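The pair is set out directly below:
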Amino acid sequence: MANLQRRGFLAATGAAALAKLARAARIDQIRLGVTTDEIDDDVEAAMKFHREFGLHWCEIRNMWGKYNTAHTLDKIHEAKALLDKYQVKLSILGTGFFKIPLPPDTPAGRAVLDNQWSLLEAAMERAKIFGTDKIRTFAFTYKDGESLDAKTYGRIYELTAEAARRAKARGFRLAVENVGSSYVWTGAQASELLKNVKASNLGLTWDPNNAGQTGEVSYPEGYSKLDPARIFHVHLRDFRKDANGKWEWCAVGEGIMDNAGQIRSLMKAGYKGNFTLETHYKSPKGREHASRTSLTALLKVIEKV
């Protein structure tokens, strides 16, 4: 009887170990990570979280209280050393490049653009230290009531193409994120950007949750308008309507986003980029708890993909 119990225990233990290995292999295949400041502004705290879940990729946006592009290069090297310590790689550097109102074509507007070009240079310098060739950017923002006419989009495409040209000269790829109140918010608008800016190093940080908050059915309809080969990075989370009918972020699995379908379609299309959980939703227990809740649910989704 004792031998039978021991064999049963060993069999159960072995099965659990195999399941753990299979899960780790799937996570590595998906290339999953978390935006670090959605866990903690302290880089090491975020790295410990990644190690706990067996994640080997991350996206960095803010760290130690401010945007990475506002930090000195010494702090960037310090952060890189922490990533190396915990065996985590940077999938993409999150920046605020072109996440501003479209400047007018005036001397004052050109001065604003000069600051943006300097920001891009700073981003490339920091991305090189981190060891990634991908930089998350945007396509300008607007206020309600502002014109979304062809002339405005033409200028946005020109400036985006110029940004891609500057980045290509340094060996970097730009991944424009479709984001709220941006000229590129939906899958349809992202598709038009890619059609008009054909630079091979210009692609998307595809965020189907952002697109979905416009009322677009971002997956599968919005996604179907995109060329998967030009999706360089993907953000995952979940969203829903609150009691007043307004869109809100929520924990993965508590909203309407078909994360399994979106991931499955990308993998079937040969997507080789990274997926990042960009938690966003607020938990009364804090950022780390919110990310832990969503990541735990997302890992269950990935097991079924």
